[in-house]
Amino acid sequence: MEQPKQNRFLSRASSGVPGLKPYSPGKPLEELEREYGITDAIKLASNENPMGPSPKAMAAVSHCLTELHRYPDDGAYRLKALLAQKHAVSSDQIVLGNGSSNVLELLVRVFASVGDEVMFSQHAFAMYPILTQAVGATAVEVPSNAWGHDLPAMSAAITDKTKLVFIANPNNPTGTWLDRESLRQFLEAVPEQVIVVVDEAYFEFAMATADKTAYPDSSYWLSDFPNLVVTRTFSKAYGIAGLRVGYGICHSEMSDLLNRVRAPFNVNLPALAGAEAALADTAHIQRVVENNQAGLAQLHAGLQALGLQAIPSLANFVCVDVKQDGLVLYESLLRKGVIVRPRPSAGMKSFIRITVGTVAENEKLLAALT
Ligand SMILES: *Cc1c(COP(=O)(O)O)cnc(C)c1O
Fold this sequence. Notes:
Blueprint: H1 29-36, E1 42-43, H2 55-63, H3 77-87, E2 94-97, H4 100-111, E3 117-121, H5 127-134, E4 138-142, H6 151-156, E5 162-168, H7 180-189, E6 195-199, H8 203-209, E7 228-233, E8 246-249, H9 252-261, H10 269-280, H11 282-305, E9 317-321, H12 326-335, E10 338-339, E11 341-342, E12 351-355, H13 359-369
Parallel strand pairs: 1-10, 3-4, 3-5, 5-6, 6-7
Antiparallel strand pairs: 2-8, 7-8, 9-12, 11-12
Helix pairs in contact: 2-10, 3-10, 4-5, 4-9, 8-11, 11-13
The protein binds pyridoxal-5'-phosphate (PLP).
């Protein structure tokens, strides 16, 4: 969205806000079709699930429609109980968000303000700097190592002002991941007063793809590290991005604080119903991760045949150096009815990020690239 040059309210906004640019989401399909007058475009831009939601989640959402005049259960008793069981923690260790980005926001609002430092890696999730700046805290971006997190450098950059460290595993937009040993070592090195957030938005894909002894489920470490928060989402493998549900798992004294700043009813009634049903539909998740593994192989092979090398990815997308201006290529793909994500940030201008689609969608993308 274009921001007005002069904004009469700017001088009154709190300190971080004037310098903020809004998060730039993937282009919606409808917008592309409207602007370019085309039909049957495909969107491989927002890491959405190409298999759609679980049919059980859809049924649960339609069943709850007669209750829409009610507020949802703010304590989310049932969903939290299911998640607590899944992660072998107690319900009061689960914090629900309107998407996991909402949980990330709660963390920043509870722990960071002007004068504090929030650390993350270069080429990591675009929300980390936005959330940091929104509260007027200082972003510390540590240079990446081969497109991934440089944990030793991050650990060395911790100061007594560091309040929060965000780690995306696997990382978005690069798809890189951290193995069990390096992440565990990092957690052991971090002083206990620093909150470490391990953002596992792509956990299900990574777990299905990686050597299982190497990719860590950080939630196993919660009892060892009271300063650890693990976030997960229903937006990616679970396929209900449109409902907006995510969660954090953490020490109950940490969730206590997050719940103090959380807006009441931040997860709506159809979202709770959909998430409960999606969680139970393990067969759907299995189909989703299988499609993803086949799609990753298809994209890697197809890109390689075009002389392009994608960064190895454990997620549901690949980030690839297209050896030209990524924005220009992005626009020419739009004209062919394919939406991907350019990476206009410094150091990645020749990269695009492509979400794994169905076999047919991946084929269409590869044909459009040729
Ligand atoms: C997609 C994504 C999220 C969260 O998305 P929500 O829809 O808000 O749950 C969080 N972190 C990363 C790294 C992501 O890519």
